[in-house]
């Protein structure tokens, strides 16, 4: 059986105020085309279908269209809710939708009830573990304590108990939305830490043939049986080096080493590449090596000691798709290690203020006009204080 593993669509999300609905629609076109081209037998969507609990109407319409197209293709789809989704909303109508071959798994009560598909080698049981918020599901699952590891362990106990009662040779697939140890995070994922612990060990999923993970946005192989597909689009500049893809996984007959016979990464369409550039503004504007990034979405980190005038407008002349600007000025000589009181000893208010301005500007001293303005401000304060003293 051939499985197509994807996750973290985040329908309705934008990228630094740039709408991504067209790019998300292009990805779903690509997904459906991939199903046909590679003769996929089942599609796995490991959570975060939407970007927020109450998604905008265009995102809902896009999702609805995708479901119709997958149903028309006659390819079963198993989908779980993630931590960005509203499980209740996503699961509305799940019983009716299931008749069309779209299996929504959003209720923890159904963890031990798989979608059962078959091929020439027998049955394949696909278990959907929606995102499990420990405080909400601990009692329902009978977990030892309210933590991610405990509730996932309890969930997997239900999976193994059901699997043990099935015919010998039944292969198993688990969809889960979690932060599993060994995975590399980005700036895009919402923190799911509970009690200071976010990651769970891969060993929690022992005993199944394939684990289709969602939550982390980078495609990753934690073990040959445990993989993240990653998000199909980049949702922060921390994903600039990601290769966005889906996993095409082939399952053969059950065996001592598992049933996976192949796993291939299939690239997703890229609406526009990302680039992170760094340096002084004039250098960035003149560097011929940055020519490939003139069509990219750009995050520029400026290291000028003094903040340049109109930096965004000047960058946009060369890099018209600059979306984010960061200032990290080059610093002058490091502090000598003297205490704050020692550094201020025998210095006037004017000198202290000038030092402060130079410090926040990366070591650039005030010019004559700026010193005059600063001196005038201090003089006004002194006059005002003297007048208040006389008026007492």
Task: Give a structural overview.
The model has no long low-confidence stretch (mean pLDDT 90). This protein is an alpha/beta fold. The chain starts with a strand and ends with a helix. The strands form 4 sheets. The chain has a 6-stranded mixed sheet. It has 11 helices and 17 strands. The chain folds into 3 domains: 2-267, Purple Acid Phosphatase, chain A, domain 2, CATH 3.60.21; 274-327; 340-390. Residues 1-217 form the Calcineurin-like phosphoesterase domain. Keywords: DNA recombination, DNA replication, Endonuclease, Exonuclease, Hydrolase, Nuclease. Residues 271-359 form the Nuclease SbcCD subunit D C-terminal domain. GO terms for molecular function: exonuclease activity. It comes from Streptomyces zaomyceticus.
